[in-house]
Design goal:
Layout: E1 2-7, E2 10-15, H1 19-23, E3 27-31, E4 35-40, E5 52-59, E6 63-70, E7 73-79, E8 85-90, E9 95-101, H2 105-116
Parallel strand pairs: 7-9
Antiparallel strand pairs: 1-2, 2-3, 4-8, 5-6, 6-7, 8-9
């Protein structure tokens, strides 16, 4: 799971627990002006094909964590439970999307959208 916070004009993604090991990341910091869109999508993580895994872990139906190359873009995943997946689309960043599991997708999306103004 990932904890998302807003601090100093940035979205800060803290990868929690063993997911740090599985995803090979512990933290991502993204400037708010690079966020294009944020939404909850419980279907996105149900696909067995997420792209070419470039570092991390993927066991279909169990975990997707790490960096994947998908449709000419880099995508960061940290999802165990697809029902709790949130997608953050980005511009001018290494990753085109961050797809992460959060405790409360609706509240997380609302908080980020509010911060985007």
């Amino acid at each position: 799971m990932t904890e998302i916070s807003v601090a100093d004009g940035n979205l800060v993604f803290e990868v929690e627990g063993w997911d740090k090991l599985w995803s090979l990341k512990s933290r991502l910091t993204i400037p708010m002006q690079h966020v294009v869109r944020v939404y909850a999508d419980p279907e996105i993580a149900k696909n067995w094909w997420l792209g070419v895994r470039m570092g991390g872990t993927h066991i279909p139906g169990v975990i997707a964590a790490g960096t994947f190359y998908q449709q000419r873009n880099w995508v960061f995943w940290d999802v165990h439970d697809p029902a709790k997946a949130v997608v953050i689309e980005l511009r001018d960043e290494r990753y085109a999307k961050l797809i992460v599991e959060v405790a409360d997708p609706a509240a997380t999306v609302a908080r980020i959208q509010s911060a985007l103004g």
